[in-house]
Prior knowledge:
Layout: H1 8-17, H2 26-34, H3 42-52, H4 54-60, E1 81-87, E2 99-105, E3 111-116, H5 121-136, E4 141-144, H6 148-151, H7 153-162, E5 165-168, H8 178-194, H9 206-214, H10 225-230, H11 239-242, H12 252-286, E6 302-303, E7 319-320
Parallel strand pairs: 1-4, 4-5
Antiparallel strand pairs: 1-2, 2-3, 6-7
Amino acid sequence: MVVPKAKVPDVLQLYHSGCSGGHLGVKRTLLKIRERFYWVHCRDDVEDWCRKCTSCAAVKGPQIRSRGASKLYNVGAPWERIAIDVAGPFPESESGTKYFMVVMDYFTKWPEVFAIPNQKASTVADKLVHEVFCRFGVPLEIHSDQGRNFESQIFQETCRVMGTHKTRITSYHPQSDRMVERFIQTLERYLAKVVEKRQRDWDRHIQPFLLSYRSAVHESTSVTPAFANFGRELRLPADLITGIPPDAPRSITDYANDLRNKMNDIYEHVRQSGRQTSEKMKTRYDRKMNNKGFDEGSLVWLHNPARSKGKSPKLQAKWDGP
C-alpha cells in the first residue's frame, strides 16, 4: 500500500509508538512497515521518527551526549592510596558471613578480601584498621563510593584518628572506581564457578583465589601484585612439584641492600607502566569526547538516575526532558 505523505506520521505512530510497534529500534520498525507500506524516503522517515521519540530517549538517553576529557591520577608508592568497597549480600555461609569487603592498593594492585557478617560501618572500620593498617601501614588516601557505611561518622572518625584522607566517587558514577569494581566482578565470576550447589561455602574460596590473583601479572603494571609489593614472587603449590631455582646464600645485610635497590627499580618500572597504561586509556576515552556545550535556549536531556521511592527502579526513565 502506498502511503500519502500526510499520512506517514500516522503510520509511524502506529508501528513504532503504538501497541503495534512496541518502541522497537529502527531496523525492526522499518522491516515491519516495509512489509505493509511504501513511500519515498521511508528509511529516512523511520530513522528520524525513532531518533526523536521522547519515550525512547527518556529510557535510552540521547544519541549524542556531552562527555568531557578524563583525568590522569597516578600514585607513586605502595599503599599510598587504596580503594575500599563491599559486595553482597550473598547466601549466608556456614561461618555466618553474607558480604565480602575488598581493599586494593592502587600502586601494586594487591587485593585484600575479608568475608564479613554485615556491612555496618563499625565492622568495616574494624577490619580496615586491624587487618590492613596494622599490616601494610596507614595510607595517605582511602577512596570509596558514597555508601552509608563509608560516609558514616564512625568511618570518618576512624580516618581522622589514623590521619588518612577520605575521598569518594561522584554520585551515580561508579566508573570513577573502576579498579575495585573490576576486581569484584572477577572474584564473583570465579566464585560462581567453584561454589557448591547450596552456595554456602563461597567464603572458603576467597583466599585460594587471592593466591592466584596476587601471583598473576597485572595488565597495568606488567608485574605481579606480589612482586610489586614484596620484590619477590609467591611460591605456588605447583612450584613444590616442579621446583624453582634456589637463591644464592647471602647475609641479612647483603639481602637488605639488594632488596632496597631491587624495590627502587620495581617501583620505577611500575610507575612507568602505570603512566603508560593511564595515558593509553585516556587517549581511547578522549576519542569520544564531546564537550561542545549548549546554546542558550537549546532543548536538552538531563540524566537523572535518582530513583523515586515506591516505584520499581527498572521501570523508571533515566532521562528527563527535553
